[in-house]
Amino acid sequence: MPRTSKPLDLNSRAQLFAHLAAMERAGVPIDQALAGLMLGARHEPAVRRLRQMVGGGRDLASSGQLSGVFTPLESTLVRAAQEAGGLAHIHEQLAQRYAEQANHAAALKSRLLLPAGILLLALAVKPLPALVGGALGLGGYLAQVALPVLWLLGLYFGVRWLWRRWQLRAAAQPTALDDLILAMPLLGSLQRRADLRNFCDSLGLLLEAGMPVLDALPRACAAQSNARLRRDFANLAPRVAAGQSLARAFDALAFPGKPMLMAVLNTGEATGRPGEALLRFARLQAQQLAARQQALATWLPRLFYLAVAGWMAYGLLTGGGFFPALPAGLAGR
């Protein structure tokens, strides 16, 4: 298990893999490349453990996971690239992915500032009539304002912590959480596309390096973070072993972009370059995934803003803001 309790943030991960890619392209040995790696004081203990493990003779993929610098998925991708001789490629792909994710996350946070401010204003205004009318003391007013804020903050940090824990796990069997994520309308689609990209990228690298398809398939399956998808894609190897072509073996699976993959893979197998076809399809999946993430960063703040505005309107309509109730003595006259 990773020993660090402070996972690398997206910007640090992008910086890490960009550095490794540049050093790999320049032909710098990994121990010398790590000597010049600086990710800040927060992550220095994990980076120091990584240097020690690589210096002790461990490979980069194992050292990265044991030191806590790599997630299990990153370690699997790097291990596949090591075996395929494509470390620079996978480092560049990971650096690009994390840089895009960091940009999307920063855009999402900036766009959420306005609706978050409106929500805080609404929470502060809603109990004001009761405070002014004397039905609510100062302590009660502060509690009504602060408790929802604390609850929302707790929910946010709790979900973020669970997501990071899920990324760092290495479960072999599918869990209810795996199925729940896949069943969610938006997140499930993003998860399927990301895992399909990782699978095709890893399998393409291994096949291009000359590894037999039956040896490459289990390694490519391990590059998927969702255990349910890993188990589904593990059924490809028995079909190929039974004599089916790789494209034909995909026919029993359900995933986004399946017709395109089968068409590309049929062409690749006909020309004797299935690995190249898989890498081309992985690039297309990466582009589509980036476009969906960009759309999410654009529309999620708008939906949140509409939800806050709707909640405020409901409070005004039902709380006497537009139609104040008459005193009891006057209402009966």
UniProtKB/TrEMBL annotation:
<dbReference type="InterPro" id="IPR042094">
    <property type="entry name" value="T2SS_GspF_sf"/>
</dbReference>
<keyword id="KW-0812">Transmembrane</keyword>
<dbReference type="Pfam" id="PF00482">
    <property type="entry name" value="T2SSF"/>
</dbReference>
<keyword id="KW-1003">Cell membrane</keyword>
<dbReference type="InterPro" id="IPR018076">
    <property type="entry name" value="T2SS_GspF_dom"/>
</dbReference>
<feature type="domain" description="Type II secretion system protein GspF">
    <location>
        <begin position="199"/>
        <end position="317"/>
    </location>
</feature>
<keyword id="KW-0472">Membrane</keyword>
<feature type="transmembrane region" description="Helical">
    <location>
        <begin position="138"/>
        <end position="159"/>
    </location>
</feature>
<feature type="transmembrane region" description="Helical">
    <location>
        <begin position="112"/>
        <end position="132"/>
    </location>
</feature>
<comment type="similarity">
    <text>Belongs to the GSP F family.</text>
</comment>
<feature type="domain" description="Type II secretion system protein GspF">
    <location>
        <begin position="18"/>
        <end position="125"/>
    </location>
</feature>
<keyword id="KW-1133">Transmembrane helix</keyword>
<feature type="transmembrane region" description="Helical">
    <location>
        <begin position="303"/>
        <end position="326"/>
    </location>
</feature>
<protein>
    <submittedName>
        <fullName>Type II secretion system F family protein</fullName>
    </submittedName>
</protein>
<dbReference type="InterPro" id="IPR003004">
    <property type="entry name" value="GspF/PilC"/>
</dbReference>
